[in-house]
Structures are given as C-alpha cells and as structure tokens.
Amino acid sequence: MKHKFISRILTIVLSVVAVSGLASCGTKKIEYIDDQSVRLNLDYKGKDFYKDGVAEVTLKTCIDGDTAHFSPIAGSSNMDTIKSRFFGIDTPESTGKVEPYGKAASNFTKEKLKTASEKGTIVVSSAQDYYGKPNPDSTGERYVTLIWVCLDKKNADVEDLRLLNLWLVQEGYSYVKNVEAMPQYAEIFDKAEAQAEKLKLVMFSGEDDPLFNYGDYSDVSLLDIKREVEKSLADSSYENPYNNVKIRIQGTVAGYANHILYLQNYYTKDQGAKYDEGEYAGINIFCGMSAVPSKFTKKNTYIELCGLAQDSENFGFQVTDVYSFNILGKNENDTKVIISAEDNVEEHKLYTFQYAAKDLKEANYDSLFCSVQITDTVEVRSIYKASNSEITLYLKDADFSIYISFMYTGTDDSYWTEEENFVGKKFKVTGVYTFHKGSNSGKISWQINPSNSSELVCVTE
Prior knowledge:
The protein is an alpha+beta fold. The chain has helices spanning 2-24, 49-52, 102-119, 164-170, 183-198, 222-234, 419-422, and strands at residues 54-64, 67-72, 82-86, 89-90, 121-126, 142-150, 162-163, 175-176, 218-219, 245-257, 260-267, 279-286, 302-312, 316-320, 336-339, 353-355, 371-374, 378-387, 390-395, 401-404, 426-437, 444-449, 456-459.
C-alpha cells in the first residue's frame, strides 16, 4: 500500500511538471478524452447492466455534476433505475450542499447527457474491466460507474464513445478522487487535472463563481414564495425571483421522507392571504444525504431555518444547502426549534387539509407542499418501481399518484415491493401534497408523499 501511495504521488508530480513544460512552450490544450487508451474495452450492445456490469441506457435524471440516474433499455432483466455515482471524480456540490462551481459542473454534465440521450448514445459501465454483476456502493442503492457518451451517433461504436468522467476533469469541473480502483486510468486522470489547474480552467481559475451566491440570508415568508411558484407552474418560462437567493424561513413540519423536509405556515388576510379566512403556504427542503436530528423533523414542530432557494429543473422550486442542522444551534443561522411539537397547540399547530379523492385536483395550489388527507379510499391500478424503496402508485379515478420513498410495510408485516402487493388494493392515505416534473417532458404530475407506512394504510373489506 505504501509503494502504491508513493507511486501515485510521483505520477501527480510528473504530470504537473509535464503540463508546465507544455504550457510554457505554448502547446495547445490536450484533449485527453480523445486518447485511444481511454476506451471502453467491453462490448455493450445487447448487454444487461444488472447482469454484465455494462449496458446502453437512457437518461432519467441528472442530479449534479457527478451523479445521475439512468433507465435501462427495454429488455433488461431489471428495469430498476440505475443510480450512478461517477467513478474517479469529485465535482463541487450543487444539491443538498451548494459549493462554488457546483452549478457549473452540474450544467456541464446535464448538457452532455441530455444531448447524448436525445441524439447519441450513453453507455454505463461498472468500475471493472470485465463482464459481471456490479456491486452497489456503501449506500446499497448507487453504483460507481464510468459514463461513456457519444453526442451525435445512435448505437455508437466503442471508439466513438468518450468518457464523461474524464471530460469533467479535463475541463476543470472536477477533482480526481479514488481512481486507483482502475489503475489503467490513473495517470491520464492526473494529467488532465494537472492541465486544468495549470490553464486555470473553471474552478481552478482563482475567480469567484458567477453562479454562486456569496451574500447573506434575508427573511422571506412562505406565502411570498408560494405566489412565485404559482406563476412558475402557470408559465414554465417564468423566472422565479427567489431562485439562487439565500433565505430565512419559518414553518411547521408537515412531513419528512427521503431527505425532504416539508414546512407549511398560516397567513391572515392582512399578511397577504387571498381568502378572508386566511391561507396556508408550504415549501420542500432538500436536506442532503446526512442524517437530520429528529427534533427538526417531528411533525407539528415549528422551526426556523436558513437555506438557498433554487428553481430545480428536476424537483421544482425548493430550498437546499441548509446552513446547519446543528442540534446545539449556537450560530444565528443554525436551524432552530421555535415551538416543540408537544407545545405547538395554537396559531402554528399543523393543519391537515381533507379532500375526497375527486376534489383534490381543484385545490392544487391551496394545499401545495402542505399536509393533506384523502377522506375516501383510493384503488391502485398500476405501479412504477424505481427501486424497492421508491415506488409510485397510480390510482383509479384520481388525478394524483402516491409516491412511496421508504421500505413500505404491508398488512402482513412484510415489505411490499412488487406489483402484486399493490394493484387492485384500496388504501387510505395521508401525506404532503406535491408534484413531480418529468425529466424530459417537463410535464407536472401531482402526488401525495406519505412519510411512513402508518400514513398509507391498506384497507381490507
């Protein structure tokens, strides 16, 4: 291990020296992605990612600079979404935590993947140079992968594919990280990083990121945000003025699931409500992948938090990059419990909207991102399973779906993960009313997100 470490340090040093020499001689930037040594050495056509570790895919969702979700092509033995963490690189964060040049890296990845998915070819391979079942990472759900793209040819030959992982490094959007698992690529990744640093590309420029907000937090009401979200939903070209703004908000916890915290708050006519009896407004907060202390996620808790508002192409308008969920709350920007769930019995007590299933569509904006309960039962007609802990239930005679983002426990106390567990059965549901935007179509689909199995009850008659 010691010898490998010394060898890697030597490689990096030599790469910097080599690039320094080239730059001083006025040599043009080297396109390392065109190097013939960086090619997929496995035939991907007709292969199955979950069996062979390599396959052609289509883009489902681009998460950030070094993470994306892909859909297997028809005929795969497993149609579960391939959640991919890109091998050998580490781009700045742009989702749960936001860092300078994270948005730029995300935009670069998204542009390449969208183009390849629409006009060319995307191939995903596990971080191995042989056929075989891929191993998930420590989360148990993601795979560390190499992403091969051709931007302008369908069913491209392997010599026309370029390694997106390396491309991100070469253009200055990513650092090299943990590349030793595939030593045949280590040297060229290091050279690409050294060149990007020498040429001062993107995050190596030494300049402020024009897409990053370096300012302070400002107090904003959820009702003001709601008004802008309504405009965005009515007109997809509308630019939300709160996008990329650091905000301080207050609200009552309406739900928490899949790293998403939902807050809602009540406003009177004098505070801008459009109804004489007042109005509720809600928001969803992506908390990142780290655990959040339960004192901040318990329903009916009234809290204050600081974060970055973002109008996400994939997830709609949300708050992300929460300053801190420090349980001690010593900094003025730390998340704070203002009223505990037990003591919140008056003005800010959690209100749950109640609707018959057929009536929910008429109240889309009134209860958006708020707690709702369907008073009658709903019957499942079909499901879509992205994974065992991500299942969408499509319903008969309803204009919304139910999104399960946890391992659901059925009436027999076992985990329900398959179509036969749900189709034809009736349920009572409580959860947060929200929406999902189609990755490619942009179409808005309304859904209820329960926080746990107790909020989705199978009714046996």
